[in-house]
């Protein structure tokens, strides 16, 4: 049975499976590292112990997520040699140095200061410890920068030439690194990491506010997370729109698949909200659409013409149903984040941020949404690039190793079993840690936190002073 399977498809599935596991951990650790730096900075500035307590709580979770991200990422580099050796040979002169820069400038920086951040506060002093935390946060951002430079070059390849062996060789490293899609992809991914972390932190805070186990700590983290969501979600929508316009310029076929435009629209294209893409009939069945809105969004003109997939040879079409739906899942979650942020802002204005149980339940439900959005965005980006690995220059079918389908299938099955066991257990342990927020030293008080992100309700503070002095 395994001999009848396609080795290229299996290799693609294997890489997609491993990178899907991997990407959720960096998406969380990038934002969490910056959150830890903010917490420690607030503690140094305000001397409020709640920030230091939250730092100690989240640093353990960060260490676990960071470790699982490293382990899950190592496996992918081996696949470049086992399943994608032709791609490695042809693109290696460009991909290899960029990956090496990531290890030297980013991963070594993270690993070098991680031990100081986790265990060194009482050994090196608060100032140097804060510096180590900043370096870990900066290292995670640098790591994302180099990896996204690699991926962006594969999406919009520039600054290279082809040698006699058919390899991509660098001509202009500045053009390679700062390729046309890199700035948009970097901003979009970093904001996605911050939103993913904010949703997790907010969900943990909301969970403990509902349980009333630690209102001071829970309220502090919930307030900070909702501020992040309120501010960053609209910025992410704007960044996503700009990234989409860049994609239209450099990868128009991907946008055609995202929009579900099988046919060209010379007088303005509709925005298809929902529907069932039908690749055989080259149409979207049961489409719910808004006339000409796609042209307005993409061209800023209701009557602007937009080309469809009918202008592209069929063998160059990406898998439209996958790209169509993954794009809509990402967009829907993005607007749900924006809505949750507005809801929290309204409750903050009404003074019910810590008492609105429906808001807290909604925040818990939205806790994993950031990971789903990141995966949906990655699927849109990578599947929409097909059938190329290096867009417009190297086909996926020409990138795979000369390896038999049974060998790829066997390793894929092994990866599935091992990954679900190891990373499933790690994720379960992280969730256990999140559910065990220490109780506030003053007990379970119903009024909420004394101070959260710089806001101090005076009557509440007075009430706590009475409790503290035994009044």
UniProtKB/TrEMBL annotation:
GO CC terms, sorted:
cytochrome complex; plasma membrane
Sequence ranges of Basic and acidic residues compositional bias: 462-471
Question: Looking at the keywords, is rRNA-binding present?
Answer: no
EC numbers listed for it are 1.10.3.-
Q: Which GO terms describe its biological process?
A: aerobic electron transport chain
| Pfam families noted in UniProt | Cyt_bd_oxida_I (PF01654)
Q: How does it sit in the membrane?
A: Multi-pass membrane protein
Kindly list the GO molecular function terms attached to this UniProt entry: electron transfer activity; heme binding; metal ion binding; oxidoreductase activity, acting on diphenols and related substances as donors, oxygen as acceptor
Keywords (A to Z) from UniProt: Cell membrane, Electron transport, Heme, Iron, Membrane, Metal-binding, Oxidoreductase, Transmembrane, Transmembrane helix, Transport
Subcellular compartments: Cell inner membrane; Cell membrane
The enzyme's main class, written as a single word, is: oxidoreductase
Q: From the record, give the transmembrane residue ranges.
A: 20-45, 57-78, 98-119, 131-154, 186-210, 222-239, 322-346, 358-379, 403-431
- Region (Disordered) residue ranges read 448-471
Which family does this protein fall into?
A: Belongs to the cytochrome ubiquinol oxidase subunit 1 family.
Protein name in UniProt: Cytochrome bd ubiquinol oxidase, subunit I (CydA, QxtA)
- Recite the lineage of the species: Bacteria, Pseudomonadati, Pseudomonadota, Alphaproteobacteria, Hyphomicrobiales
């Amino acid at each position: 049975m395994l001999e009848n399977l396609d080795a290229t498809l299996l290799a693609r599935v294997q890489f997609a499976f491993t990178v899907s596991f991997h990407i959720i951990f960096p998406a969380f650790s990038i934002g969490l590292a910056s959150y830890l730096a903010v917490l420690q900075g607030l503690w140094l500035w305000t001397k409020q112990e709640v920030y230091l307590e939250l730092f100690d709580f989240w640093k353990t979770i960060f260490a676990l997520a960071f470790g699982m991200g490293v382990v899950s990422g190592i496996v992918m580099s081996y696949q470049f040699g086992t399943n994608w050796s032709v791609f490695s040979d042809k693109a290696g002169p460009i991909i290899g140095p960029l990956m090496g820069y990531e290890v030297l400038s980013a991963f070594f920086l993270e690993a070098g200061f991680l031990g100081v951040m986790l265990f060194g506060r009482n050994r090196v002093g608060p100032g140097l410890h804060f510096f180590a935390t900043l370096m870990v946060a900066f290292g995670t951002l640098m790591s994302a920068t180099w990896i996204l430079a690699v991926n962006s070059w594969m999406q919009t390849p520039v600054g290279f030439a082809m040698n006699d062996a058919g390899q991509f060789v660098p001509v202009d490293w500045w053009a390679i690194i700062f390729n046309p899609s890199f700035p948009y992809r970097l901003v979009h991914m970093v904001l996605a990491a911050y939103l993913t972390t904010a949703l997790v932190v907010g969900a943990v805070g909301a969970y403990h506010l509902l349980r009333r186990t630690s209102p001071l700590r829970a309220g502090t983290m919930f307030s900070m997370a909702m501020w992040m969501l309120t501010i960053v979600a609209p910025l992410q929508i704007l960044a996503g729109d700009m990234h989409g316009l860049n994609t239209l310029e450099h990868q128009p076929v991907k946008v055609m698949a995202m929009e579900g435009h099988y046919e060209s629209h010379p007088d303005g294209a509709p925005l298809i909200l929902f529907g069932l893409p039908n690749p055989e009939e080259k149409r979207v069945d049961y489409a719910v659409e808004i006339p000409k809105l796609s042209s307005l969004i993409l061209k800023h003109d209701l009557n602007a013409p937009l080309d469809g997939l009918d202008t592209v040879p069929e063998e160059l079409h990406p898998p439209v149903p996958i790209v169509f739906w993954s794009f809509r899942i990402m967009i829907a979650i993005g607007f749900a984040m924006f809505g949750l942020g507005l809801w929290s802002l309204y409750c903050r204005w009404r003074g019910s941020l810590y008492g609105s149980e429906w808001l807290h339940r909604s925040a818990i439900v939205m806790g994993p949404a950031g990971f789903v959005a990141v995966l949906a965005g990655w699927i849109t980006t990578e599947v929409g690039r097909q059938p190329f690995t290096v867009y417009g220059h190297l086909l996926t079918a020409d990138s795979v190793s000369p390896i038999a389908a049974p060998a790829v299938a066997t390793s894929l099955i092994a990866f599935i079993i091992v990954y679900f066991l190891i990373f499933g257990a790690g994720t379960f342990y992280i969730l256990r840690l999140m559910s065990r927020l220490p109780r506030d030293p003053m007990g379970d008080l119903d009024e909420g936190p004394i101070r959260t992100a710089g806001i101090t309700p005076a009557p509440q503070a007075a009430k706590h002073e009475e409790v503290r002095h035994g009044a």
